[in-house]
Amino acid sequence: MAVTLKEVAARAGVSRSAVSRAFTDGASVSAKTRAKVEKAAGELGYAPNALASSLTTGRTKLIGLIANNFHNPLILEVFDLFTRGLQDRGLRPLLVNLSEATDPAASVRMLRQYSVDGVIVASSTLPTSFAEAFKTAGLPVVHAFGRKSAAPDVPVVGIDNVACGRMAAEALLARGYRKVGFLGGPAMATSTQDRATGFLDAIRGHAGLSVRVSYADAYTFDAGRAEMQRLLAAPQEAYFCGDDLLAVGALSAIVDAGLSVPGDIGLIGLNDMEMSRWQNIGLTTIHQPVAQIIEAAIDLVVATIEEPDRPAEVRLFDCHVVERRTLRAMP
């Protein structure tokens, strides 16, 4: 049978309200009383009821964690880092799967039912309207992996996807490729659009180059493989795949067609996810600092909960090319 607050109070020789204050962050209680309560709780094996505590403080310590690309293995790393980061701060994640969502209103209603203290939208493909809908509803929100903006409506943490597109183009040009391609994810995703923009801008600055743009249906292995199978009818010399999973799918299609990477076709991805480091893949890619992005997103949502009127800001983290073996060597 669970130990009650009343039993702890009796063992410590204090009032029940003193026990409650001892387990409430920021509540007024003397060091002597707190020590007596903690000693009694330890002896009895008592743990405070977090849900009951929320009724007193008005805070549930729940953070809605929203994502929509559960087919991508990177999301497992994201969830691991987010959940541990939140728990280290005494917060609890409430996971929301928006894989088929098109209207943010339903998500707002659901998270309001759970009285979350804040929301983190963890997606590079959801439109900005999702994060903005939570702000409009009065919920502190941060968009992790979101699109940069000179005047953001909500805090954004992520990378400069346009700069990453330029970085990929420069990597291909430096290796002497003259016929290059962009193999992106969904054409409507802002991350795809920005990566394509940076890539094409960098390519257009050089004369005598052939460039082609194509889009896969999703950021998945199967979508990357299917699109590359189509492209192999008249392939370019090298491709910037807008996600590692697309690149691994493209690699599979190229090898199955009896061609080699990078001998016949070069590939560069983006994210530096775990599988890109596998010995049988060895994908040259652009490293996205996922851990730093997540830590900053948690810091910002906590700051926004404490100070709801603080100005929205954008925090962008630098990326860099990780050399492996899917591009030809530098001349």
Characterize the structure shown.
This protein is an alpha/beta fold and 331 residues long. The chain contains twelve helices and twelve strands. The strands form two sheets. It has a six-stranded parallel beta sheet with strand order 2-1-3-4-5-11, with helices on both faces. The chain has a six-stranded mixed beta sheet with strand order 7-6-8-9-10-12, sandwiched between helices. Helix 7 (128-136) links the parallel strand 3 (118-122) and strand 4 (141-144). The chain is elongated and about 85 Å long.
Proportion of strand residues = 15-25%
- Count of extended strands: 12
The description of the largest β-sheet is: 6 strands, parallel
Helix content: 40-55%
Instruction: Output the radius of gyration.
Output: 25 Å
